[in-house]
Design goal:
The protein has 231 residues and is of the alpha/beta class. It contains eight helices and twelve strands. The protein has two domains: 117 residues, Response regulator (Rossmann fold); 97 residues, Winged helix-like DNA-binding domain superfamily/Winged helix DNA-binding domain (Arc Repressor Mutant, subunit A, Orthogonal Bundle). The chain is 40% helix and 23% strand. The strands form three sheets. The protein has a five-stranded parallel sheet, with helices on both faces. It has a four-stranded antiparallel sheet with strand order 6-7-8-9, with helices on one face. Strands 10-12-11 form a three-stranded antiparallel sheet. α4 packs across α7, α6 packs across α8 and α7 packs across α8.
Length: 231
């Protein structure tokens, strides 16, 4: 966590300056972007350890930036949003944000949120398009999941929602995800019921087992589901 590189994507210079000072005082390095296009360029070239991403930015807004980042990277992202933007909060989590903070905020809160996300994701970040989770290969470019058996790659035929469940949980594969979290992150608005999650998970688990990946998407009693079984 010490010396972690944090990209602050924020077009309000005063906010970016204050947040930057607090993060630097906590031992982190910072780089700033004042618009969405520059944020994407920095994310690609500098590969920061975490991105603080404002939703309202020029050229490309934060949700566009997050969507593009998640096409080929699982860099942790913490969204910064205005108080009344509940829809944006939900949208950002559905697109793959790791957390969000609401303006106006205490800079110390930002530091603690950043530390918490870094602790949760350390060792999990993989900037390659294809991510390995046990015997699973998640190809974010093709939106596809494969089961690896020796030199063979077996494609698992998933629905778009089933793929989103796998892809979202792969960011921290041994963490237990609640049903409500999976609803926000993965389900279309018309399906936003917790019992629908159970159906999607059950169907996905069966498909993984048929392809030779047993034990994945295990149920965590009283919480929800975990993608990769604990060993």
């Amino acid at each position: 966590m010490d010396n972690a590189l944090i990209l602050i994507a924020e077009d309000e210079a005063e906010i970016a300056e204050i947040v930057g000072v607090y993060l630097e005082n906590a031992g982190m390095r910072i780089v700033k972007a004042t618009d969405g296009e520059l944020a994407l360029l920095h994310a690609k070239q500098l590969k920061p350890d975490l991105i603080l991403l404002d939703i309202k930015m020029p050229k490309k807004d934060g949700l566009e930036v997050l969507r593009e980042i998640r096409r080929n990277s699982n860099i942790p992202v913490v969204m910064m949003t205005a108080l009344a933007e509940d829809i944006d909060k939900i949208s950002s989590l559905r697109l793959g944000a790791d957390d969000y903070v609401v303006k106006p905020f205490n800079p110390l809160e930002i530091v603690e949120r950043v530390k918490a996300v870094l602790r949760r994701t350390v060792g999990q970040v993989d900037n390659e398009i294809a991510l390995r989770v046990g015997c699973l290969k998640i190809d974010r470019d093709a939106n596809a999941v494969f089961v690896l058996r020796g030199d063979e790659e077996i494609h698992v035929s998933l629905t778009p929602t089933e793929y989103l469940v796998i892809a979202h949980m792969s960011y921290s594969s041994k963490r237990a995800y609640s049903r409500s979290e999976l609803v926000d992150a993965c389900l279309p608005e018309g399906e936003a019921l917790e019992r629908t999650v159970d159906s999607h998970v059950s169907n996905t688990r069966k498909k993984l087992e048929i392809a030779g990946a047993k034990g994945y998407l295990e149920t965590v009693r009283g919480v929800g589901y975990r993608l990769e079984p604990l060993t």
